[in-house]
Amino acid sequence: MIDKLPTCGGSYVLVMQLAHPQLITPGRLGRQTMPAGYYCYAGSAFGPGGLRARLRHHATPVSRPHWHVDYLRQKADLIEIWYTDTDEKREHDYASLICKQPDTIQAIAGFGASDCNCTSHLIYHPMQPDVRQFRRSLAMNYPGDKLYSTSVSW
């Protein structure tokens, strides 16, 4: 699945699930209690290897976390990946669009947003997020961005 992703740059959303409440300590953000439910993390990948390299990293929990989301991935199951291969860095925009969906809240202030002014790039959903709803929102706000999605099954 990961090997079929493009090597170009782009932006993405990781859809993860915590079956039970968990404690995580994402770096300087300190110890955080994470309720059971679904989490969307918005990011971008414009370095070497593009989307494929970054999403390969996120697909497998790492023993030595680098990014905030790595700490969550140690406990959460990755269930879907949504991505675009646009040349524009859209992680901030995608996090904002997800926050506008019903019943969502920004999970941890500063999560994934240490290099920008966003409140957070991690959004909590009590129920599984709907890719169709995000696709409609994306089409209305960024009509040139084509959204791809893939379920992750191990």
Brief overview, please?
Helix content is 23%, strand content 27%. It has 154 residues and is of the alpha+beta class. The chain has one domain (2-151).
Task: Break the fold down into its secondary structure elements and pairings.
Blueprint: E1 10-18, E2 22-24, E3 32-34, E4 37-45, H1 50-59, H2 68-73, E5 77-84, H3 91-99, E6 105-106, E7 122-125, H4 131-141, E8 148-151
Antiparallel strand pairs: 1-4, 1-5, 2-3, 4-7, 5-8, 6-7
- Terminal Cα span: 10 Å
The amount of helix comes to: 10-25%
Query: Low-confidence runs (pLDDT<50, min 5 residues)?
Result: none
Total number of helices: 4
Beta-strand residue fraction? 25-35%
The helix/strand class is: alpha+beta
Q: Total strand count, please? A: 8
Mean pLDDT: 90
Q: Main beta sheet, described? A: 6 strands, antiparallel
What is the N-to-C order of secondary-structure elements (H for helix, E for strand)? EEEEHHEHEEHE
Provide the spatial order of strands within the biggest beta sheet. 6-7-4-1-5-8
> Any idea how many domains?
1
| Shape label | globular
Overall radius of gyration: 14 Å
Walk me through this protein's architecture.
There is one protein chain. By secondary structure, this protein is α+β, with helices and mostly antiparallel strands. The chain has one domain (2-151). Helix content is 23%, strand content 27%. The chain contains four helices and eight strands; from the N terminus they run E-E-E-E-H-H-E-H-E-E-H-E. It has helices at residues 50-59, 68-73, 91-99, 131-141, and strands at residues 10-18, 22-24, 32-34, 37-45, 77-84, 105-106, 122-125, 148-151. It has a six-stranded antiparallel beta sheet with strand order 6-7-4-1-5-8. It has a two-stranded antiparallel sheet with strand order 2-3. Strand 2 and strand 3 (32-34) form a beta hairpin. It is globular, with a radius of gyration of 14 Å. It starts with 9 loop residues before the first strand and ends with a strand. 36% of the residues are buried. The mean pLDDT is 90.
